[in-house]
């Protein structure tokens, strides 16, 4: 009930602001000039018709203050709305918005629109956070239940600790380890941790080492990972962080590719800009231009299609972007008629952020 009453107070300011100007300073200046002019004319008429100056002056001041108050309410109405919206958001209600005339382009109007964008982002983050809690609970429960069942069966003598059974236990513990690693990376992202161990390495060798375990875990999906990487390209960076970047991007391409299709990894050196450019392409699927930015937001999961897998925590691509940004690079989806093309651009030489 408290939230509802607070929401009902939003948007009740009906006085129209001064919409003829695109600057708040001009609006306030025009308001002062108009109020002063009206007060001057009124005072002149009152004095002309024989009113005492001791009466005419206070009366014109009251009228000027009244005019200023009425019109200033319209100018500052969004500020009061933002106050109420902020209070509602502090109580956990992220659905409220500031009501603003779309034709208003002064500083207050721009601030109100930016405030609404922030509120929309917070609403999305809160929803994704709740979804993530549910997803993590499910992801944790599944391997833990499997581990408990297998260990209990072994303890009761129902099953023997054969290599196959131990391999199943190892698989479940690896799932737990991966999930914990994702959560730790999320904590580092939130804390802004950016410690890097910079070293020079060969890009082709690095990508070979990164792709090898992905080919093993790809299992029976029969994806063909083709690599076109020059053998003489080197760069500087933190290999652990960059391995997170490339592992998440390549794993995402495999996850959203139908079985038996090709995933292409192309790398070249852009000598003009001093960067290493890598494109990871999974053929057949496309990502709509409107969704290309959203997929890098935390907790956003890609849509699955026929022959593709979904699931996960929705953190992989956001962690990949974070790792790229730590190195002063970028990762984005670019136009490619062949399919979904993730382009990773990293500086060849590390530039200290200090």
TrEMBL record:
<dbReference type="GO" id="GO:0000155">
    <property type="term" value="F:phosphorelay sensor kinase activity"/>
</dbReference>
<dbReference type="Pfam" id="PF02518">
    <property type="entry name" value="HATPase_c"/>
</dbReference>
<keyword id="KW-0547">Nucleotide-binding</keyword>
<keyword id="KW-0812">Transmembrane</keyword>
<keyword id="KW-0808">Transferase</keyword>
<dbReference type="Pfam" id="PF00672">
    <property type="entry name" value="HAMP"/>
</dbReference>
<dbReference type="GO" id="GO:0005886">
    <property type="term" value="C:plasma membrane"/>
</dbReference>
<keyword id="KW-0902">Two-component regulatory system</keyword>
<dbReference type="InterPro" id="IPR036097">
    <property type="entry name" value="HisK_dim/P_sf"/>
</dbReference>
<keyword id="KW-1003">Cell membrane</keyword>
<keyword id="KW-0597">Phosphoprotein</keyword>
<keyword id="KW-0067">ATP-binding</keyword>
<feature type="transmembrane region" description="Helical">
    <location>
        <begin position="53"/>
        <end position="72"/>
    </location>
</feature>
<feature type="transmembrane region" description="Helical">
    <location>
        <begin position="26"/>
        <end position="47"/>
    </location>
</feature>
<dbReference type="InterPro" id="IPR050398">
    <property type="entry name" value="HssS/ArlS-like"/>
</dbReference>
<dbReference type="InterPro" id="IPR003594">
    <property type="entry name" value="HATPase_dom"/>
</dbReference>
<feature type="domain" description="Histidine kinase">
    <location>
        <begin position="135"/>
        <end position="350"/>
    </location>
</feature>
<dbReference type="Pfam" id="PF00512">
    <property type="entry name" value="HisKA"/>
</dbReference>
<dbReference type="InterPro" id="IPR004358">
    <property type="entry name" value="Sig_transdc_His_kin-like_C"/>
</dbReference>
<keyword id="KW-1133">Transmembrane helix</keyword>
<dbReference type="GO" id="GO:0005524">
    <property type="term" value="F:ATP binding"/>
</dbReference>
<feature type="domain" description="HAMP">
    <location>
        <begin position="73"/>
        <end position="127"/>
    </location>
</feature>
<keyword id="KW-0418">Kinase</keyword>
<protein>
    <recommendedName>
        <fullName>histidine kinase</fullName>
        <ecNumber>2.7.13.3</ecNumber>
    </recommendedName>
</protein>
<dbReference type="InterPro" id="IPR036890">
    <property type="entry name" value="HATPase_C_sf"/>
</dbReference>
<dbReference type="InterPro" id="IPR003660">
    <property type="entry name" value="HAMP_dom"/>
</dbReference>
<dbReference type="InterPro" id="IPR005467">
    <property type="entry name" value="His_kinase_dom"/>
</dbReference>
<dbReference type="InterPro" id="IPR003661">
    <property type="entry name" value="HisK_dim/P_dom"/>
</dbReference>
<keyword id="KW-0472">Membrane</keyword>
């Amino acid at each position: 009930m408290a939230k509802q009453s607070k929401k009902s107070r939003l948007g009740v300011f009906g006085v129209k602001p001064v919409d003829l100007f695109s600057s708040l300073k001009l609006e306030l200046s025009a308001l002062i000039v108009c109020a002063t002019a009206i007060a001057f004319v009124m005072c002149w008429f009152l004095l002309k018709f024989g009113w005492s100056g001791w009466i005419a002056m206070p009366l014109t001041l009251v009228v000027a203050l009244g005019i200023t108050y009425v019109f200033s309410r319209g100018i500052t109405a969004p500020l009061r709305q933002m106050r109420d919206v902020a209070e509602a958001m502090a109580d956990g209600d992220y659905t409220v918005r500031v009501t603003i005339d779309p034709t208003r382009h002064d500083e207050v109007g721009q601030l109100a629109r930016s405030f609404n964008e922030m509120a929309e982002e917070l609403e999305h983050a809160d929803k994704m956070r709740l979804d993530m809690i549910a997803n993590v609970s499910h992801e944790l429960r599944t391997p833990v239940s499997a581990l408990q069942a297998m260990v209990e069966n072994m303890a009761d003598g129902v099953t023997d600790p054969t290599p196959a059974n131990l391999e199943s236990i190892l698989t479940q513990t690896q799932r737990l380890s991966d999930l914990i690693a994702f959560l730790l990376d999320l904590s580092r992202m939130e804390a802004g941790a950016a410690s890097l161990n910079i070293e020079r390495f060969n890009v082709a060798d690095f990508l070979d080492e990164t792709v090898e375990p992905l080919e093993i875990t790809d299992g029976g999906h029969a994806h063909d990972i083709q690599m076109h990487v020059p053998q003489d390209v080197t760069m500087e960076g933190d290999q652990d962080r960059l391995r997170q970047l490339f592992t998440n991007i390549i794993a995402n391409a495999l996850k959203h590719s139908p079985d038996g299709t090709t995933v292409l990894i192309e790398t070249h050196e852009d000598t003009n800009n001093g960067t290493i450019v890598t494109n990871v392409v999974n053929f057949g699927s496309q990502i709509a231009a409107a969704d290309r930015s959203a997929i890098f937001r935390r907790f956003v999961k890609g849509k699955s299609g026929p022959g593709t897998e979904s699931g996960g925590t929705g953190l992989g691509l956001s962690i990949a972007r974070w790792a790229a940004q730590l190195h002063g690079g970028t990762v984005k989806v670019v136009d490619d008629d062949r399919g979904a093309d993730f382009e990773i651009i990293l500086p060849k030489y590390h530039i200290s952020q200090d």
